[in-house]
Amino acid sequence: MRIDDESSGDVTDVAKVPTSADVAREAGVSQSTVSYVMSGKRPISSTTRRRVEEAIARLTYEPHAGARALAGHRTSTIAIVMPLRPTSSAQRLMTFVEEITLAARERDYDVLLVTADEGPAGLRRVVGRSLCDAVVVMEVGTTDERVTIAREVRAPVVVVGIPEDGDGVDCLDFDFAGAGRLLVEELADLGHRAVDVVGWDPDVVADGYNYVPRFTRGATSAAEDRGVELRWHLPADAPGLRTTLEQVCAPRPEPHGLLLVRAFPEVLRSLSEHGLRPGRDVDVVALASDTEAQAHDLTATATRPREVSRRVTARLFALIDGDAVPGRAAAETVPAELVRRGSTRRP
Amino acid sequence: MRIDDESSGDVTDVAKVPTSADVAREAGVSQSTVSYVMSGKRPISSTTRRRVEEAIARLTYEPHAGARALAGHRTSTIAIVMPLRPTSSAQRLMTFVEEITLAARERDYDVLLVTADEGPAGLRRVVGRSLCDAVVVMEVGTTDERVTIAREVRAPVVVVGIPEDGDGVDCLDFDFAGAGRLLVEELADLGHRAVDVVGWDPDVVADGYNYVPRFTRGATSAAEDRGVELRWHLPADAPGLRTTLEQVCAPRPEPHGLLLVRAFPEVLRSLSEHGLRPGRDVDVVALASDTEAQAHDLTATATRPREVSRRVTARLFALIDGDAVPGRAAAETVPAELVRRGSTRRP
DNA sequence: TTGTATGCGTTATCAC
DNA sequence: GTGATAACGCATACAA
Questions:
Q1: Where is the HTH lacI-type domain (chains A, B) (predicted)?
Q2: Average pLDDT over residues B112-126
């Protein structure tokens, strides 16, 4: 074994990446002291602290994440399991990811991305391999195997969505039922007795995302309460969509109400091509992001991804810190809010 | 130290996560054999292999990623540095992330997400801490400090975008100049001598993303070649946008050409409210994703995020495998293609 | 074809 | 307030 004295470097030394031992030598302290300076887990005299910090800066030392994880039993990483397809808008997903990542960075955590096409195995893998300390599962289905696994796994898991059997799992989501109710009530308030609803694509419905039936239930129950008839249309490619548009844009004797679960540009374009102007000839409400709703001037409820993300990360870090018991809290729901814009007449 | 015999477990043993040593004991082989079975880096007799694999299955063993990284000097992780805001569409970014993640998983790599708000430090951090083996930097600016750091850092970096000084860095992007050229030429072919262009928001321009000037150069040079006059409009909130819309929707004596750098719903809506129908009263071309273009029935060039991602990952893994020399290849560009839809008359 | 032994760079428990 | 030192779980050079 080669002796490690300070003058042993060859002339053509490759720039080795410095370790905490190098920092210790440079600062004239022990390696463990360097570790404690970084973690702050024990009192350090200000002079040693300064010398160590200067050595760190001189060598541009960075701790090895793997070694840390191995010795410290924590990775400082959280995993996000993404949904299979952009079922809600890509915008919404990006907002989630962005918000969670920023919150993580504030605590010096990193974010690992897992695609849902790995299925339940992905969840098992990232915690099994100790790739993360906690997991966020986005957009779970009504019955989702990953919810079961969330209970078995030895890391905290927060689930976005309200699955059928969510007992013992930390669930959290936007209140889609409340949104459905709010949108129908708005049209009812405007005097509509019948409402056309353009719902989700059949394949989105088939995926079993639980927010679809929740929204539907909210809308349906509000419709019953207010004596409104809901006529559901499912958009699809070419022919199916055309039929929907014809029905939705057909001339009516009475005022017409339209509820969109997304800001379908095709539908809005079709309306205007038929001479129907939102806010004048037809009242249109939608489930859409603020950005979309603004661009299309739609009265809408946004699904508030930022607020949901905030609560997700709060819950997650509470679990990580041991400030909360896993699966103990009831499913949490972020209330819906309606913003009126030009696509509806004023009540 | 406690002796590690097989009957030492207390009655109330917490389920310890198994290590390769546990697998070895269970299979009656040495720990190194387990390692070699998993890596395939040396020949193993079929009987041993079977016994080890069965033991792995019985114990549901998963290797500890940190320990692997420490001992193996590789993390099997690639990092993606995201842009600050969704400058191009969120859809486009999600597609990038999705495509890169899938390609990574095919090689048993994971993906770490880094937000650009960390700035150049983020790039330094993830490779300094050995959190990844390689990095993709999304949407670099015309002059971007991260490009400089990409050269210094000891891990392969592929950059999406064509920065001013990209020498010695692996750059790759969609051919925005070609797209600008293509779109202008299409309008020229339709007989337009003057074209209104609705460009990027001023704050996007201010961010210095280099695809903006590239697109502009392509469009401008095509306009000069074809004797077309380009009138640039920059959208903005409320008042600015209103002015733009008035100018763009003003009645004209001659046929009118319109080029959008995004599928601005506000602009399209405004057109139809002014009774101007794309493909009849005005020819509209756009830089927009297939999804958007289809929804709005726009003649458009897509920015092909999937194809760009494919080339990014190909390049990245070539660098990781040592099949390519870093910074050696010229900047690579994915050609633009135009798809005609209902928003333009047939030539 | 398999086993032994060492080191990877931290954290954390002792001792002083 | 600081310094040795034993894990942590795996990869791999060296033996057999």
A1: 18-72
A2: 95
Q: Are A334 and A180 in contact (CB under 8 A)?
A: no
Alpha-carbon gap, residue B138 to B90, rounded angstroms: 13
* Domain CATH code at residue A267: 3.40.50.2300
Strand B134-137 relative to strand A134-137, pairing? unpaired
- Whether A196 and A278 map to the same domain: the answer is yes
| Structure tokens given for A152 | 């078995």
Residue B194: enclosing H or E segment and its boundaries? Answer: strand B194-198
Mean pLDDT calculated for residue range A112-120 = 93
Q: What is the pLDDT of residues B63-106, one digit of tens each?
A: 999 999 999 999 999 999 998 765 668 889 999 999 999 999 99
The distance (Å) linking the CA of B67 with the C1' of C7 is: 12
| Residues having Cβ less than 7 A from any atom in strand D | A 28-33, 36, 42-45, 47-49, 67, 70-71; B 1, 17, 19-21, 31-32, 35-36, 38-39, 41, 61-64, 67-68, 70-73
Please check whether residue A347 lies inside any domain of the structure: no
Tell me whether residue A4 is in a domain: no
Is the CB of residue B37 less than 8 Å from the CB of residue B54?
no
pLDDT, mean of residues A338-347: 92
Q: Which residues of A touch B115 (CB under 8 A)?
A: 98, 101-102, 105
* A129 and A64 fall within a common domain: no
CA distance B225 to chain A (A): 35
CA distance A290 to A91: 11
List of chain B residues whose C-beta atoms are within 8 Å of the C-beta of residue A80: 113
CATH value at residue A53: 1.10.260.40
Q: Which domain holds residue B83?
A: 77-174+306-334
Nucleotide showing the shortest C1' distance to residue A130 CA: D9
Cβ of B265 within 8 Å of Cβ of A265? The answer is yes
- How long is the CA A47 to C1' C15 vector, in angstroms? 23
Nearest nucleotide, CA B24 to C1': C3
Whether residue A265 is contained in a domain is answered as yes
Sheet with A299-301, side-by-side order of all strands: A229-233, A194-198, A256-260, A282-287, A299-301, A338-339
Domain assignment present for residue B340? The answer is no
Q: Is residue B28's beta carbon less than 7 angstroms from any atom in nucleic acid strand C?
A: yes
pLDDT 10s digits, B25-39 = 999 999 999 999 999
